[in-house]
Amino acid sequence: MSWTISGTYVAGCSCAVLCSCPYDGQPRDAKGGTECLGTAVFHVADGNLDDLDLSDVDFAFYNHFPSNLSSGNWKVGLVVDSAASDRQADALERILSGREGGPFGELSQFYGEYLGMERASVSLSDAETPGLVVEGRTELAYEPLTGPDGSSTKIRNAAFGFAPEFEVGRTSGRSDAFGLSYEASYGETADYVFSSEEAEATVHGRA
What is the reported pTM? Predict the structure, then answer.
């Protein structure tokens, strides 16, 4: 089967700013902890799995990274927006779990435990107060870091990332899903394109 999804994502995690996960460093939070707990919400502006349309579906990808990302043993879980059909939710689970190949198939070699899929309202906040909301589980506000000229700070060509270039910032709020609970600190956002036709993974592990 072939698939593609594209759109915008916003992510937040427990790591102190800046998170070291994109360059495969040891995760560290503000209290000295050495794990990364995070959530990334994706809006699918356009997408499909074969002839099944996945456009306008939102989903949340949860992670627990116990060490630097290439060490593996990740825990990952998925929440698909309750407005999506059962077929759309099943298709996204197949993609995100790695069963349909492509970049998430490459990433799945690092999965230690797949925590399953749940359904709830999932959304990205509006532009005035950017962030992400997963009903009953996660609510994070996002603020970009900026440089001397006032433009947002970005990371390019990271070893692990959901996009070749992404904006970085701070998040605030709490998350508690799949038994993974954390206070948010780091954040990032970008447009993304994932496809089963990619020769090599462009998703390198940020969440």
Answer: 0.94
